[in-house]
Design brief:
Blueprint (H helix, E strand, L loop, with lengths): L1 H25 L3 H25 L4 H28 L3 H8 L1 H14 L3 H4 L2 E3 L3 H13 L6 H15 L4 E3 L10 H16 L10 H38 L1
Antiparallel strand pairs: 1-2
Helix pairs in contact: 1-2, 1-3, 2-3, 2-7, 2-10, 3-4, 3-5, 3-7, 5-8, 7-8
Keywords: Lipid biosynthesis, Lipid metabolism, Membrane, Phospholipid biosynthesis, Phospholipid metabolism, Transferase, Transmembrane, Transmembrane helix
Organism: Gottfriedia endophytica
EC number: 2.7.8.8
Length: about 240
Amino acid sequence: MIKKSIPNLFTLGNLYCGFLSIGFAAKGEISNAAILVIIGMMLDSMDGRMARILNVQSQMGKELDSLADIVTFGVAPSYLIYCTIFSNHGLFGICFSGLFPLFGAYRLARFNITPMSKSLKYFTGVPITAAGGIVALLTLLHKSIPPVIMIVIFIALAFLMVSRIQIPSFKDIPIPKYSTIITLFLGYLLYLVWDLKKAQWPFFLYIAIPLYIILFFFQFFKSKKKKSNYEGHEKKKKFRLKR
């Protein structure tokens, strides 16, 4: 029973990050709110892998993951965009920001009814996790990016989620699932160090960095073990053929 609950704990952690992100954004702590979305991405990339490693995949886990994703990568990023860009635009700003989770929910529903054999090879449309993570990064750097660019990217990501564009899943590549986005995030950390603003580091960086390191080494040793098992299998196969 405990074994089956481990992947769900990662998923619930992802969901809780989404809730906390909304709470911190409401308090005006945009940096912490954005970083919580990125922490949610890390947890989301680990729950499915843990389920496969422990061989405890279930329909409940899949549905729970979708519910968590719509909060952390749909509602939370759209509220972040509202707080940083559209808060001075009244009702229009609220309504426009709210389109993002609507597109994201449709994207998740379509993904859930897609045959597993197809979803392993490619994604149809940009995954909501990647789209929400990019929006969170934009809000993290919103002081350095013109609002017009943020709005254009926000709209583009919303429509790309429901588009029919086929994007390779890259699930077999031995790097963290969202390494590009997280690398940009770490680049922002280097900028903070270079600019000598350690005192202004958001609190949740101290959670995100160790979590990323754990995720990286987990993925590294997993790929190394997989390669070792494959080489051992090939050696046994050659030995049998020689006999």
